[in-house]
Specification:
The structure is a single chain. This protein is mostly helical. The chain contains 14 helices and no strands. Helix 6 crosses helix 11, helix 12 packs antiparallel against helix 14 and helix 13 runs antiparallel to helix 14.
Length: 285
């Protein structure tokens, strides 16, 4: 019953925050939801310092958020559905046009995951569950859609998984915002997180740029592609979940705060500006 109550509260908050964002803030849905959730978390913290009633409200919310295992909720519960819903709409023919770049940037785990039947089974045999789900979505969304589905079935399939994707993303981003309540913030860790932002971007630049440079030997190097791939490497729920999965200790608290700082910057700044970068690159082309 407690789990049901938590899901009910998160769903209600997602609906309420979604309305407020649509009516007043008008940001992209997931970003707006996370922003409102962060603001609500800050309000709860402030209330906790304003007296007995405010403290009681903050304590109640803290108890609810602490009862949620973020790592397990995302990695075991939500992730497979989100990845499958996303992969379902990917066109394999378009991917094939960039097969060498994708092949280099991907890992050998894709090949191993082709033989898995589900997220759970892939976990048992120690291969990548998320990659298995993505592969399943790619094949069902392309070959299954083409050879085994009528037009009506395809429409129903798309609507169902788009709905699942929207609902789970809404819950996830609200939960990311509410996690601020259980994070131990301190100035040094936040500043370290700010310093980590350019470090993470540089790491992304190298991880994308070096393979592209090697594949562009004798050809024109595509700087526009590199800018988009670097700035578009957003961090989100998985980063927070992995940080929260660390064993308790001072180092864990610092890493969580740094990770949260990077994630908030990634979603709020990179997420809101990527479309302008893509538009600018298209105009240059």
């Amino acid at each position: 019953m407690e789990l049901f109550n938590i899901i009910a509260v998160l769903t209600t908050l997602s609906a309420l925050f979604g309305y407020l964002n649509h009516r007043y803030i008008k940001l992209p849905t997931t970003i707006g939801l996370m922003l409102i959730s962060i603001l609500m978390s800050l309000v709860m913290v402030i209330l906790g310092h304003l007296g007995h009633i405010g403290y009681g409200i903050e304590k109640q919310w803290l108890g609810m958020i602490r009862n949620i295992d973020f790592n397990k909720t995302l990695m075991v519960g939500m992730l497979s559905f989100l990845l499958f819903a996303g992969a379902l709409h990917v066109d394999l023919h378009e991917l094939l046009k960039q097969k060498w770049q994708i092949g280099v940037l991907a890992t050998i785990g894709v090949i191993l995951s082709l033989v898995t039947a589900s997220y759970a089974f892939s976990t048992v045999i120690h291969t990548s569950g998320p990659i298995a789900i993505v592969v399943a979505g790619l094949f069902i969304g392309n070959h299954g859609r083409q050879f085994a589905m009528s037009k009506k079935t395809r429409e129903n399939l798309d609507m169902f998984w788009e709905l699942i994707d929207e609902i789970l993303n809404a819950l996830l981003f609200v939960l990311i915002g509410l996690e601020l309540l259980v994070i131990t913030l301190n100035v040094s860790s936040v500043l370290a997180g700010v310093v980590a932002i350019p470090v993470v971007l540089c790491a992304r630049l190298l991880s994308v740029g070096v393979p592209q440079l090697l594949m562009s030997m004798g050809k024109k190097f595509d700087f526009k592609f590199l800018r988009i791939m670097t700035w578009g490497g957003l961090r989100g729920g998985i980063s927070v979940a992995l940080a929260l999965s660390l064993p308790a200790g001072f180092e864990r608290d610092s890493i969580i705060t740094m990770t949260y700082t990077v994630v908030v910057f990634s979603i709020m700044v990179q997420g809101l500006t990527i479309k302008y970068l893509i538009g600018h690159s298209a105009e240059v082309l």
